[in-house]
Every structure is written in C-alpha cells, then in structure tokens.
Design a protein that fits this description.
This protein is of the alpha/beta class. The chain contains 10 helices and 5 strands. The chain has one domain: Rossmann fold. Helix 5 runs parallel beside helix 9. The protein binds 2'-deoxycytidine-5'-monophosphate (DC). The site of 2'-deoxycytidine-5'-monophosphate has 15 residues, from helix 2, helix 5 and helix 9.
C-alpha cells in the first residue's frame, strides 16, 4: 500500500504520516529530507543555494546514508534548513536528480533496520502528483498560515530555538509562495487527493479521518 500526504509546511503531514505508518506497518519517507540535505550540504560547503548547477551536482551525489547523516545536524530542522531546502527545491534540475531515489523507495519499502514493510507513506509537496501518481490513497493537508506558524513556533520553543513568532510566520508565507509558485512540481493537490483543512482539528481527529477513508475503500 502506498499513501501520499502533501501540503504546506506545518499542516500536520509528518504527524499523520507517522501515525499511519505505525498503524498499517508502512515505512515513512519524509521527502522534505532530500531537499533539506541538499540545501544543508551546500551551506556547509560554502556554496550558494541559488546556484542551480552547483545544487544539481550535490543532488546527483546524494545517497540515503548521506541524507541520514546530514539529518543529525542542528540546522537540518532549523528555520534556515527549511529555507535552503525551499530554494534548492525550486531548481528543476535538482528535482529531476532526486526523483528516482524517491520513486525507487516505493518498489521495495523497508524499515530503518532493513526489515520489509507493508508499503510506504510519503509526505512532501509533490508526492501525490509527481513521485507516486499511482498511490492507493492521497491526502492533501492544509491549514491557515497563522495556525501553521503557531505550530512551528511552539516546536522551535520546545527545542530551545530562540525565534520570534513573526519571523516564523513571515518564513512560512515566503516558503508557501515559493513552493506554490515554482514552475516544476509546484505545491498543489493531486486531482484525486482528499483535501483536509486541519486548522481546527487535533492530530488525532486528522488521523481518524484518514483511517476512515482508508477503511472505506
Ligand atoms: O516538508 P519540509 O518542510 O521538510 O520541506 C522543506 C522544503 O522542501 C519545502 O519548503 C519545499 C521542499 N519540498 C519539495 O519541494 N517537495 C517535496 N516533496 C518535499 C519538500
């Protein structure tokens, strides 16, 4: 079984993906990680994230192991990590270079310890439209930018990251505009995705709704 969950930052995709992965014994692929890895690797090597050719080179050499190693860096999940990822992800050549790696995962999904899974749950921006257009179930989660900024701000506070709410909100609005406005694989729901506005929902309510939909088919 392949499930895709797309939507803007902090709409609740990661939490839903983790909950579905646990319930249905699926392996979870957070596809934002591939772009975060490229952006961070460029930053660590003093490269300009706006340089498409340099970004493509890094993307072509990215392996799963390298991505996992970079994910331990404190900036990987920080505010800058998200912004670098959004910038490199707008380069069409970077997206092409990273597509196969993401698609191959669905052919033989395994857990981190190598044991086989019942399938995969992807989350990202284009997983239902480009990465897995034939997925069994597709969700598109959204929420108001203020609510998403509040969620992200509280995550940062919990991690001890010092950042103002207004900065988190302006980053989210800027990222939404870049992710939705780019020419290749822009953020948008697949025609056959179920759209869920999570603004006034708890994570449990979102999970219950997704399970009902999966159970119906
Ligand atoms: O989900 P995230 O915040 O980790 O994603 C970081 C950036 O990566 C996001 O702003 C846009 C990009 N991204 C993408 O273009 N396509 C995906 N499938 C996932 C993420």
């Amino acid at each position: 079984m392949i499930i895709t969950i797309d939507g803007p930052a902090s709409a609740g995709k990661g939490t839903l993906a983790a909950n579905l992965a646990k319930k249905y014994k699926l392996s979870h692929f957070d596809t934002g990680m591939v772009y975060r890895a490229v952006g961070l690797e460029m930053f660590l090597n003093g490269l300009d994230v706006n340089d498409e050719a340099a970004a493509e080179k890094i993307a072509k050499s990215l392996t799963f192991a390298k991505m996992m190693e970079l994910s331990k860096h404190p900036e990987f999940r920080g505010a800058n990590g998200g912004n670098y990822a959004s910038i490199v992800s707008a380069h069409p050549k970077v997206r092409t270079a990273l597509l196969k790696m993401q698609q191959d995962f669905s052919k033989n999904p395994t857990f981190a310890d190598g044991t086989p899974a019942n399938g995969a749950v992807y989350d990202g921006r284009d997983t239902g439209t480009v990465v897995c257009p034939n997925a069994d179930y597709k969700f598109f989660l959204t929420a108001s930018s203020e609510i998403r900024a509040k969620r992200r701000y509280l995550e940062f506070v919990e991690k001890g990251i010092d950042i103002a709410y207004e900065k988190v909100l302006s980053d989210i609005v800027e990222r939404d505009a870049r992710d939705s406005g780019r020419s290749t694989a822009p953020l948008k729901p697949a025609d056959d995705a179920v759209i869920v506005d999570t603004s006034d929902m708890t994570a449990e309510e979102v999970f219950d709704k997704a399970c009902q939909i999966i159970g119906l088919k």
